[in-house]
């Protein structure tokens, strides 16, 4: 049964939706970007219904300044109070709840990595984690798409070197040497881990609860996350035995296709059981 209700967060009123079910293990969905709790094309509402049909209660909510909730939208890095209030609201609304798993995509995954364990969440499912600095308070997917990771550049040049036509262009002077040199420098560059990425690396290294990382391998945001994940500063995070990773051969940031949705649902159900 689907219920709508409100709860308090630092003097503001947040609006939530609960899909009820009998299991004592529940799911909290945290929306990414400026999306309302139903998600893009009602994707999170459909996901909640599917997880509830499998037996687990699911709560979604609009953070401050989004959708039906009051207050100021100050960006995902300012949502520690929202997450903590949502956890308390769900435990109050579902008193039989013994274990709470939280799911977030993009910057919601980053917010959960930073603030989830302290809020009382027992396990995390973090998809396509946002690791880039942005001039605004919100992640800019266009910004991620416009910049290639060093790994992507290396893959591109390796493919060119395997192509006889590209080798002929190089030998015959059909390649801009200056552009080639700049590209090779970018390909050889080490990934810088500063700012948000550094905070996330530390949070994952010290993560005290199980965390499942989900990656749509061809999504540019996910590619940037993997670039940071494979870097030396993330070595401690990679060594954390409580962290696992599942990769999907997809470029859909929001798991839009039917197959992607099914894959995401199964990974979340794995974390709930």
Automatic annotation (TrEMBL):
UniProt cross-references to NCBIfam families, sorted A to Z: hydr1_PEP
Protein name: Hydrolase 1, exosortase A system-associated
InterPro entries: AB_hydrolase_fold, Hydrolase-1_PEP, Hydrolase_4
UniProt source species: Blastomonas fulva
Record keyword Hydrolase present: yes
Gene3D superfamilies named in the record: alpha/beta hydrolase
Pfam families according to UniProt: Hydrolase_4
GO MF term list: hydrolase activity
Keyword Hydrolase appears in the UniProt entry: yes
Keywords for this protein: Hydrolase
Membrane-traversing stretches: none
